[in-house]
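Quick question: what would this complex look like in 3D?
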Amino acid sequence: MKVRILRQQSPVSAPYWESFVYDGPADNSVAGALDYLNYHDDIINAEGKRTTRIGWECSCLQGICGACAMVINGRPALACETFLRDLKGEEIEIRPLRKFPVIHDLVVDRSSIQENLKQANMYIGEYQPAEDGDHSHQYAAAKCLKCGLCLEVCPNYVNGRTFFGAAFANDCYLVATRNRSKGGSVRTLYAEHFGKTCSKSLSCMEICPMKISTLASMAHLNRKPRK
Ligand code: SF4
């Protein structure tokens, strides 16, 4: 099986495609296949030439850290949860997420997700939960990995400077429901950085590995809060 990867040696260098021959276990995940290609002392590409190790990142390899988010055969996904047996064709094409600056090969800089939360002071602080809270959705929203897959497919998210995307909206929901006193200011920030711009394609929900219903967060935040 051939694995074609869009590589980039540094944040300022030009991207280029490089292919590799994968002859490892067929039941591997894409993360496992990348690990396999990087395993030997000498990394050899499909042309038989020595090359550099493929840059990618992971922490848990079980769909919890979100670090291995990338675009696999045109679809944004976690590499650890995408299995070779489920991919069609004899060649796999892998590229880094396109909405974030590339650091090295498949490693991107997603710090804008956290920076936007920090800039908006989106933290719970004192725990004063809403009495009518939907605990099952709070539990679901708290599972956000900040992987950035929802931003990759979002037609409204460009670079995170004004529109912050679904990960932000879900955190707004969490803060508003777990600290009632912040509800008003959170709703203002939610409207400014999400609500006014979101075109409701809901592609974020389709791609989210944690199956978070951003629509449920939106419904709560768009509702007039109880006094
Ligand atoms: S909402 Fe889902 S897709 Fe978006 S960052 Fe969180 S876990 Fe990833």
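Answer marked as accepted. Strands lie at 2-7, 16-21, 43-44, 50-51, 69-72, 75-78, 91-95, 102-104, 107-108.
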